[in-house]
Amino acid sequence: MACTVKKSLKSVDVHDKSPRCRRRWSAKDDDLLRFYYNKYKGSWSRIAKELPGRDNRACYNRWINHANPKLKKAPLEKWEIDVLKENYKYYGNQWNLLIKDLEGRTPLQAKNYFYGMKKPSELILLDFIQAIDQGKNVNLSNSE
């Protein structure tokens, strides 16, 4: 797959492996990532060598957040939201810890849920509860 990216007056080839050249992941790329993940048992540097224009970090991030077949892509269920909120009280925005009890969910999904809440006041309330649980003094007034 030949893809070029314009850089000033020159074109840069995707197979150049330079970090300057970036392109979207395609379904074919995801299939190749799954194939090489199974072949190389998660050796990201070896997998990246098989995918032109990708480095080991890009391959790892794509696997963790999108390509892993064990991931749940459906919206969060009510019980999962309840677990996230409960864990948020203890861990705050440490996304890896929030999802430890949720099989097939990623830290990115947890972060997107909290930052996409329709009621930001709910998040503020969770922060307030966390502060009280940690024994911090909480100022309820808006004045400093």
From TrEMBL:
It holds the Pfam family Myb_DNA-bind_6. This is 8051_t:CDS:1. GO terms for cellular component: nucleus. PROSITE patterns: HTH_MYB, MYB_LIKE. GO terms for molecular function: DNA-binding transcription factor activity, RNA polymerase II-specific; RNA polymerase II cis-regulatory region sequence-specific DNA binding. Residues 22-71 form the HTH myb-type domain. PANTHER family: CHROMOSOME UNDETERMINED SCAFFOLD_121, WHOLE GENOME SHOTGUN SEQUENCE, MYB PROTEIN-RELATED. Residues 17-67 form the Myb-like domain.
